[in-house]
Amino acid sequence: MTDLRVFRDEPFLRHRLRMIPLAELKRFEAFDEAKVTRLVAKIREEQTFFNPISVVRELIVIDGANRLEALRRLGARFVPCVVYDYSEVELLGNVHFIDNGVTTRLSEFSPEAGERVEFPRRSPEDIQAAAESGQLIPNGETFHQVAQSVIRLPIPLAALMSNEPFDLGAEIERRMTSGQIRFYPASVYVCDEW
Length: 194
What we know:
Blueprint: H1 10-16, E1 17-21, H2 33-46, E2 48-49, E3 53-56, E4 61-63, H3 65-74, E5 78-84, E6 90-93, E7 95-99, E8 102-105, E9 115-118, H4 124-133, E10 142-145, E11 155-156, H5 157-161, H6 168-177
Parallel strand pairs: 3-5
Antiparallel strand pairs: 1-5, 2-11, 3-4, 6-10, 7-8, 7-9
Helix pairs in contact: 2-3
C-alpha cells in the first residue's frame, strides 16, 4: 500500500497560499457575465468565499477570472490565492462546443453537441502580454493545468473586505492541526461549481 505521507505537501499549503490585495492582481482573460452574476449571488448569500484563485508569481490570475470579478463587485480588498511559477504550469488550449447559441467547455461535462471549437495553445509570454496590454483573451480559451490545487477553503466574505488581510497562514495551521484538511493524490471532480 502507498504511504500518502510521501505525497502530502504541507509546505505547499504553508507557503503557496497567500492573501493578495485585489488591486495587485492582473487579468489576462475576460470574465463570463452570467457566471459572475451567479457567483456574486452565491457568495453574498453564503457570506463565504470557498475556492482560492490561482496566480503565477507575476500576480496574473491563471484560474479564477470569474471569481475575481465577483469578489471585486462585492467589495473585497484581499483575495486568497495559490501562487505558482509558470515552470510548474502546463498551458493548454481549451475546447468548447457551441450548440444553438449556448457555449459549453469540454471540462464542464456537458454534452459534446454542436460545433467543436479548439482554441490554440498559448505561451506564458502570450498570457503576460495580454495582462500587460489589457487586451484580454476571451474567457475559457486557455486551460492552466497545475499539479496541486486548493479547493473548498471557506473564508468569510467580511474578512476579504477588511482593511487588514485575513491571517491565512494561521487558518491553514488551525485546519491542519484539527484535521480539517484532506489531501487527495489523484484527480478531483468538483460537483458544486457555479
